[in-house]
Known about the structure:
By secondary structure, the chain is α/β, with parallel strands linked by helices. It has a single domain (37-278), classed as TIM Barrel (Alpha-Beta Barrel), CATH 3.20.20.220. Helices cover 50% and strands 13% of the residues. The protein is built from twelve helices and eight strands. The longest helix has 21 residues, at 70-90. The chain is globular. It starts with a helix and ends with a helix. Residues 1-6 and 293-304 have low confidence and may be disordered.
Amino acid sequence: MIESxxxxxxxxxxxxxxxNRAARRWGLKFGAAQVxxxxxxxxxxETVRSLNEKGLVCTVDHLGEFVSSREEAAESTQYCIDTxxxxxxxxxxxxxxxxxxxxxxxxxxxFCLDNMRKxxxxxxxxxxxxxxxxxxxxxxxxxxxxxxELRKEYDQVGTVIQAYxxxxxxxxxxLRGVPLRxxxxxxxxxxxxxYQDKAKVDENYLEIIKEHxxxxxxxxxxxxxxxxxxxxKAFAEEKQIPRDRFEFQMLYGFRNELQLQxxxxxxxxxVYVPYGNDWFGYFMRRMAERPQNVTFALKGFFSK
Length: 304
């Protein structure tokens, strides 16, 4: 019960615009600096370079929430383009992750689509890959619609499917051949659209992982759960799925030892590296996911 209340508080805070604006003035405090790689592109690139040197590959995300104007969306689009250019200029091994609402999806569909084309043209120029992060359920179908439109023109784009959604398995089947990041899900959704029981979410998560792996599609398994990871490793070995057809992904700042262990075992281990001053919503969702993260954050705050 306490855990549920705590989760709801953090999820509410993640969507609060007033708190988000205040957090920009605070800077990377309250432990956020442990999970956000600075506020500038340069700081993100240095973090990626350090992770690469340890045998880890990355995906970089310029954080953004609550974009409500074309000017903000255009600025976010340019940040994505600049990040791809910086990845090439610094010579680091990293993809790009982004959110469509940051690029104007809630303002105008065609405007957002045009912004994505600009970003993907840059990614194509540098032979890089762009991942469209999945947001809340209200944006699920329109995100997949836009992805299908982009896939007619570009190969180097994929998205994320969230296992707690009832529709997840069918979406994975419909997206056969598309590179997917598979996650459990981090937003508060109603029982009408999402499983509420952790055991059911875990069961569905393993099912969609197996479905995508056996379809021959490239699969990113994004989890910090060592039990899930162990089951995926055993399944891939049993089905003789080559290691170059899947990868593990974890968030920057979490389970660092396990990340290094997987890389040393010969698996592709990709670290999700967020940066930017609009970090509050991202940080609150990480606090909501696991009670242990609150202790982690407080330790980071009081150690400063």
